[in-house]
Amino acid sequence: MVRIAAFAVVVPAFAELVFAAPLHLSRRAFTLQDYADFQISDGTAGNAQADAAAVFLTPFDGVDLATVDSTTLSAKTMREAAETAETAQFDPAIDAATGAAATALQNGKIKNKVLKLTGEVQTLNIEIAQAKASNEDTSDLETQLAAEQTKLNTNIALDTKAAGQASQGVTGGTTNEAAASASSSSSSSVSKTKTKAVRATTAAAAASTPASGTADGSSFTFAVQAYADFQISDGTAGNAAAQANAVFVDPLNGLDLSTLDDSVATNMNTMREAAETAETAQFDPAIDAATGAAATALQNGKIKNKVLKLTGEVQVLNIKIAKAQAAGEDTSDLESQLADEQTKLTTNIATDTKNVGAASKGVV
Fold first, then answer.
1. CA separation for the pair 358, 296 (Å, rounded)
2. Which of 106, 114, 158, 216 is most buried, taking the most CB atoms under 10 A from its CB?
3. Which of 72-86, 95-109, 110-124 has the lowest mean pLDDT?
4. What is the DSSP letter of 328?
5. Bridge partners of 236?
């Protein structure tokens, strides 16, 4: 089983008597856990903020973040594990469930979002502290932090609103019998759906990651668009891959990605972030407030938006990899990220394909 870095910081009771300055955190302070061991979704809603803090914040109490060993940024790996659980497990399970079971899974997903975003915020706090200690500019990091904190606050509010309700995770654990039964039923249904959709999904996913071309792209420009102008959620489900490709992939067909100006990836990432913000700040609350056909249409729109967001992420990584390879740099970390994002993209394309022809609703 893949092991995922987590934190278990042990500070002796007499530490405050020995250290007058903030504590330094060393690599030895960490152990490894699987996602199932640090996930917080099982149980009841309403306590996600405290549960997530226990994972990502409490271990750093009294620690000068500027002195944290660089390996502590493996918190990113934990955050990514939570994000993968969201797209590869929660979303399909919620789609396949109904009634109380679907509500419990949705509550679990929100708690997982709080966990994921708390990890992201803490990682950014560490990066900012270390950058400041090196007298580096932190404006970009602080902009990212503000955006992630807004998402976190939104999801904490949703969790608080659902306080006391059943919450179901996707890795097992204690929960009510009804939700557990629904989770099992959902897994079976999702498995059957994936079998039916695999051919169309594989083809669509492959189309989203074209090889770099040979034409000089140094003069190519990619202008930032307002989210309302490039969103693809309105209409019907089933064509998200092609629509997302039209935004992020097709404009670069035939171009040597290594020759692109850095502004191309930067602008693409800005648009990707806009799609991600729409997901957490608009789709999630709208879905929670809707019922019946309206909720289903919004959920379909959210899946299409995920395909859009992830297609942008994959293309940005393709550009970064091409540039790094052209410069003779190691791309192993980037390629690992690309594999993770492609897996998420493939999952969401499958969900969109399964819903082909169904009504899809956007939020702008």
1. 9
2. 114
3. 72-86
4. T
5. 359
User: 75-85 vs 99-133: helix axis angle to the nearest 10?
Assistant: 160
Could you tell me the two tokens for 187? 């897994």
Nearest to 231 by CA among 306, 159, 161, 172: 306
Q: Can you say whether residue 116 is alpha, beta or left, with left for phi > 0 and alpha for psi between -120 and 50 degrees?
A: alpha
Rounded CA separation 214/75 (Å): 38
Q: Per-residue b/e over 116-145, b at no fewer than 16 CB within 10 Å?
A: bbbbbbbbbbbbbbbbeeeeeebeebeebb
Tell me phi and psi for residue 293, to 5 degrees.
-60, -35
Query: What are the domain boundaries of the chain?
Result: 1-196, 208-364
Yes or no: say if 38 and 6 are a contact pair by the CB < 8 Å rule: yes
Side chain identity, residue 76: K
The Cα–Cα gap between 280 and 250 comes to: 27
Partners of 328 in beta bridges: none
N- to C-terminal Cα distance for the chain? Answer: 42
Distance CA 60, CA 125 (A): 11
Token pair for 215: 């034409």
Which amino acid type is present at position 354?
K
For the residues 338-361, what does the mean pLDDT come to?
A: 89
Average pLDDT value for the chain: 79
